[in-house]
TrEMBL record:
It is an enzyme of class 1 (oxidoreductase). InterPro entries: Ald_DH/histidinol_DH (IPR016161), Histidinol_DH_monofunct (IPR022695), Hstdl_DH (IPR012131). Its EC number is 1.1.1.23. HAMAP family: HisD. It catalyses: L-histidinol + 2 NAD(+) + H2O = L-histidine + 2 NADH + 3 H(+). This is Histidinol dehydrogenase.
Amino acid sequence: MKVIAYSDRGFKAALEKVVQRGRQDTGAVEPAVRTILKAVERGGDRAVLRYAKKFDRVSLTPDAMRVTPEEIKEAYYKIRKEDGDALRLAAQRIATFHERQRTKTWMYQEQGATLGQAVLPLDVVGLYVPGGKAVYPSTVLMAAIPAKVAGVRRVTMCTPSGQAGINPYLLVAADIAGVDEIYRVGGVQAVAAMAYGTKTIAKVDKIVGPGNIYVATAKKLLYGVVGIDMMAGPSELLVLADESANPSHVAADLLCEAEHDEHAKVYLVTPSRKMADNVARAVQAQVKQLSRTAIAAKAISRHAVAFVVESMERAIDVANEIAAEHLSVATERPFDYLERIRHAGALFLGRYTPPAVADYIAGPNHVLPTGGTARFFSALSVNDYVKISNIVSFTKEELQRVKDPLVRLAHIEGFDAHAKSAESRFL
């Protein structure tokens, strides 16, 4: 883990590189993604199945794309009872947290006008669940449960199958979360199928869930055809630590994020050079003890940086510049800094709050903005699964009261028909 202090010549450049980490060039993959999108738009199921065979090496028929109820039932027998209990506990806590996010339709009266907003759930949401080097049943829960809490009528899930089939934990998690349809297709072709609709996979209104650069690029290109949640990149964690932090705990938290994949990004910001050096040594010792040592070690060597700054006040400024997905505040009095921290996907406060507790069991959503987008994106929530329709109702008397300024504003903008539509009510 590289340690760099504010007095070092390369400090400013190293920090700027981290701040700009989200500028991912997708130009190299866009042509291939566009080709697949167009093929699925035109060819439907046939194109989806062709790419499934090409990329996932699995031969399917349209009838075999959808996972059957019998397969879901069988998945329960492939996992331990204790694992199913853990998934159900996580689901219950996620539902409880997200129930508190629900908003209702509201209206108020202002003289002769009734104004308000109708809060309406989306009809159909598509959940993309990646395959790859790890399995993420927790992400299934985090993405599907808020949709159900919001009142979404149908949740469709797509995930690559491969020759080994869909991991049973994903099927169990989907069943617990109330997913209505599961399809054994992944990649850009799955995203395209949900966006455009095929004979087998019905079109959705919004697509949520993480994926590799090809999936992320597909979502970006399809925005407008469907809604999307956010542009998610590699997982990341920043730890703010003062002299009171335990270097072993900090190192363990950094490795918790680094083991996701080789592209994961982890940072330490501290006013203590001693703390930075101790954490770096602890990381090197602990990484050797992991089952995913090779992955975590690559992430650490490529992306991990410990920034030593002048003070905790400066440390908070640096954290706000970086705007990390996960921000752990490992200080003596973490709540003292809460109001000054402006940009982070999620905050973990106190020495007994490892990021892992929020990844799995706490309840708040772990689908979070990455790459510095925490400056303007929020954690996935019930609000991502509803849309707002404004409500406007005027009496004749209230329209008469505001007619003259309405007409004046219409003429300022050169829209005579707007003015006449109001005036016609009194002819």
